Amino acid sequence: MPSLQARIIEFLLPLSGFRRVLASEDSLRREIPRLRRRGPALPSRRMRRRFLIRERELHGTRLFTVAPHTGAAPQHIVYLHGGGYFNGIVTAHWGIIGRLIRRTHCAVTAPLYPLAPEHTVTDLFGRLLPLWRQLAAELGADNVTLMGDSSGGGISLALAQQLRDRGEPLPARLVLLSPWLDVTLSDPSQPALARRDRLLDIPGARAAGAMHAGDLPPTDPRVSPLFGSLKGLPPIAVFSGTHDLLYPDARRLRDRAAEQGAALEHYDYEGLFHVWLGVPIPEAARAMDQIADFIGAAPEP
Fold first, then answer.
1. Is residue 300 situated within a structural domain?
2. Helix, strand, coil in percent for the chain, rounding step 5
3. Of 56, 199, 212, 247, which has the highest C-beta tally within 10 A?
4. Residue 194, SS3?
5. What residues make up the domain containing 151?
6. Do 223 and 183 form a contact (C-beta atoms < 8 A)?
7. HSE (side-chain half, CA atoms, 13 Å) at 102
8. What's the total number of domains in the chain?
9. Could you tell me which of 124, 166, 122 has the C-alpha nearest to residue 141?
10. Reported pTM
């Protein structure tokens, strides 16, 4: 059973307004101009006191590297934030990054990648592929965990698939948090889940997926990596909650990995909502310990 804190947070999720944004394509398109005016959330003053933060631009992409002041682990995390492809990084993502650093002592690099509808998946990977090549050269791909939540989880998997197909250096491992793996949202169990999910809804999410796809079909693996091969990829850890609209696709990914002989660990959280790691609840702390174990970085004593 979820913790009391998790149940309270789930009850309050509609107050975020995100589900109203995803109620229809019209509501989504009305919201995007407001989001652009607001811009991405940046690291807070408190975060800047607690960690070393470096900002730079690579291949036209703004990115932040956040690291502990002392005792950094040799592993590095490249984190791709979620937001339905249309929304920039938000305060909850910086919370995830901060908790990752405290648990693993790893430095985390977070690119502020191009967003839909101004940019499509073709534009996105036109930026991320050269960005990855430079980071892999600087850090050593074998030292890097590629991680993302929601749409960022799907982008992480699609990026790894493209690197494999191109014969380029792959990250050491992948960690996908409540990943969005199929923008068609066509699993037969998802309409029932949509009535339970207090954060996501199908019409607007499907429209956001179409904006991201651009001229590509929504089942193209660059858009929906669930339809791509998992063979030859590094070990994958997937964290998903059963009250999440995207939960069925995580289960389908687990089944496809078993069929293809791919190394995948699925951490299944009963009664948890979409990207619960973004809030300070006991289940988020447990998941952070599991991530630390998966990437081989000792949690902070």
1. no
2. 45, 15, 35
3. 212
4. helix
5. 4-295
6. yes
7. 11
8. 1
9. 166
10. 0.97
- Considering the domain boundaries, does residue 215 fall inside one? yes
Question: Does residue 301 lie in a domain region?
Answer: no
Instruction: Output the six-digit token pair for 221.
Output: 């693996």
Give pLDDT tens digits along the chain (301 positions). Answer: 899 999 999 999 999 999 999 999 999 999 999 999 999 999 999 999 999 999 999 999 999 999 999 988 999 999 999 999 999 999 999 999 999 999 999 999 999 999 999 999 999 999 999 999 999 999 999 999 999 999 999 999 999 999 999 999 999 999 999 999 999 999 999 999 999 999 999 999 999 999 999 999 999 999 999 999 999 999 999 999 999 999 999 999 999 999 999 999 999 999 999 999 999 999 999 999 999 999 986 544 4
The CATH number linked to 199 is: 3.40.50.1820
Q: Assess if residue 212 is contained within a domain.
A: yes
* Nearest partner of 224 among 158, 131, 166, judged by Cα: 158
